Amino acid sequence: MRNRIRKLSHDFFNEAIKIRRHLHKYPELSFNELETSAFICSQLDRLEISYKKGFVGNGIIARIEGRNPDKKLIAIRADMDALPITEKNDLDYASKNDGIMHACGHDVHMTCLLGASSILNKLREEFEGTIILIFQPGEELLPGGAKQMLEEGIFEDVVPEAILALHVQPDIPAGVVGFRPGKYMASNDEIYIAVKGKGGHGAMPHKLVDPVLLASHLIVSLQQIVSRGTEAGIPTVLSFGKLIANGATNVIPDEVLIEGTFRTMDETWRKEAHRRILHMATYLTKSMGGDCDIEIRKGYPALVNNEVLTINSQKLAKEYLGDDKVLDLGVRMTSEDFAFFSQKFPACFYRLGVGFPGESEPAGLHSPGFMVNEEALETGIGLMVWLSLNTLK
Asked: Is 81 an annotated catalytic residue?
């Protein structure tokens, strides 16, 4: 079976390139994946795979039944949306949609799932159970398509015993994959603070309550929550990437806006850190004569891979690719809304290398220069089939 899957993946490779390049050429933003959804439906129609569409707007749920379909059910997920980034790559299939790019590899994710669907459908008389295919919208934008698909009841009638998903990784070479059992990716919360004071002429600060100074103190002080409040062993990040003090060289504004992100891997600490951020922001600004409005928008939870499923999947990957093609991954402080699935069902979220040989510093995810080595498609499709069939066993 392993050699059959390898051959079928190789045979599908040229078709996979066509699919991936089409998807890359016509990216769509989160929850606006209308044409992307229509294209996926056309591919499923061509493969004669049954599906339902319209979940959270553009989501699709397809189904491949083997012999004895009620014996066991697993799911595989791919996300569909692109990012508000202008592509800088000089490619004949570069994005045609201004200011939108598949800079996170979701075009690859969809292609791998479509390729795996084609092969699994051909093999449906040779396995027992059912495989659910999830094409999910809106991974890149809170509250996330995964959460909303679950709330719409995509698994009301059936409960998967396992759910799998891959994600591209540019600093891993094509042909190589990576796994991490247990805690893998961080939760992600957005912080919005409006620091309020009394503006005026920069030459007369004694008559003002300077919100720029308040905001500066606040940003530095909030770092103590991470450096002094976090228990050792709990990965935590608090970063501020946006600061708007819309004054001038000699004008101090009335208000300064701050935006940032808080990430961690422990739900108890996450809740406590939120409380401390709110408390410090409120009372530090008041102690300096100002005030603030603060909002913490709770985002995706930490992504936790099921230990047994992921360890087994890593062993299976070594059987399919060889030991030297399978890596142990470290913790990542980026986030993923697949975490909502991992809270509900045994999950395995693994990495697919898409790097080029000899490339020391590839453009990263969410970068306008992000590039994919398309040789990775054959690996991604074949391994997805191999993991799915063995997980069904």
From this structure: yes
